[in-house]
Each structure stands twice: as C-alpha cells, then as structure tokens.
Write a structure and sequence with these properties.
Length: about 180
C-alpha cells in the first residue's frame, strides 16, 4: 500500500511513514525523510529553546539521562570517542580530529602503535592520537605514549633529543 507525502508530494510505501494513532490510516501525513528535515530545521532555528528543554528534562530525569548516556557510549564507542575528542579540541583551542568513526573503528587493533602494549594488559582503552595542527588521525596509543608525545609538544626533534638523552645516560649493561 502507498501514500502521498503532504510535504514532498511523492508517492511512497507506508513503511516510509511514521506511526500516528490519531490519523485514520494510523500513519503520519508526511514521510520520515521530510520529518527529519523539518526537525533539523526547527532545531537550527530554535537552538536555545531546544537546549533549555533538554536541560529541564535532564534535571527532571537525571537517572534516565545517565542510563541513555552509558548505553550510547557502550553501543557507539568510536562515535563517543570522536565526539568527546572534538569537544576537547574546541575547549583546548586546537584542530579537532577529522577522521570518521568508521576510520577509527577499522584502524583499532587494541594495541598501542608505539610500545605495542595491549589494551587488555593495560585495562584502559587506547587513546585516539591526532595531529593538533592538521586534525589528521595518526593511530591508537596507550596513555603513557600519548602523554609522552603530548608533553614533548608532538615535536619529532624533542622526541629525538629525549631518546638521545636517555641513551647517553643509560648504565652499561653487564656482558652475559
């Protein structure tokens, strides 16, 4: 069975329409695609109003909001990490990572690209490393390696100097 959307005026199957128990045919008068577009337009025009409504809801139902947040984080770990990273970049004043969550997911091996430690051994999720100037995703690093290159300002020159410093001050290992 088909129905005509009142917004785009296209004839579409009923499966393309949302449910609406108030209507005779029990389906919305516009298709899902037009509904999404209308919702996005409304959100853009009424951003402050939507934020205030979300804040009221979060205040009224904090446990529901926490549960939804935990569920989203569990079901969409790479989307969550990317979103969190982009927020951190905005706050820190550097370029956010420009990778997609699919690229992050496909490149995740569970092993640090520098030291090779597994996230299972480390019992902490690996960090998403990216260039803060270009936004280019570089790979997954353990907290120690990511912190190390971060403290050395992502500078290959400083990293080389640090390596030389460690090597020049290392005690001679006894022979066999």
């Amino acid at each position: 069975m088909a129905k005509s959307c009142c917004r785009c005026e296209e004839e579409k199957p009923l499966s393309e329409f949302g449910k609406d128990s108030r209507r005779k045919d029990k389906h919305s008068y516009f298709c899902r695609e037009c509904g999404r577009k209308a919702s996005l337009e409304y959100s853009k025009k009424n951003r402050k109003k939507r934020c205030e409504a979300a804040m009221r809801y979060a205040k009224k139902y904090p446990e529901k909001v926490k549960a939804n947040h935990r569920r989203y984080k569990k079901n969409n770990p790479f989307k969550f990490i990317l979103k969190q990273s982009r927020g951190d970049a905005k706050l820190g004043g550097f370029m956010p990572c420009n990778a997609t969550h699919e690229e992050l997911r496909d490149s995740y091996t569970g092993v640090c690209k520098i030291c090779g430690i597994s996230d299972k051994v480390n019992s902490r999720r690996l960090s998403m490393d990216h260039d803060h100037e270009t936004g280019k995703f570089r790979g997954w690093l353990c907290m120690g390696c990511n912190g190390g290159i971060g403290f050395l300002k992502d500078s290959p020159g400083l990293l080389r100097l640090a390596a030389e410093y460690i090597e020049s001050n290392r005690a001679e290992e006894p022979n066999g």
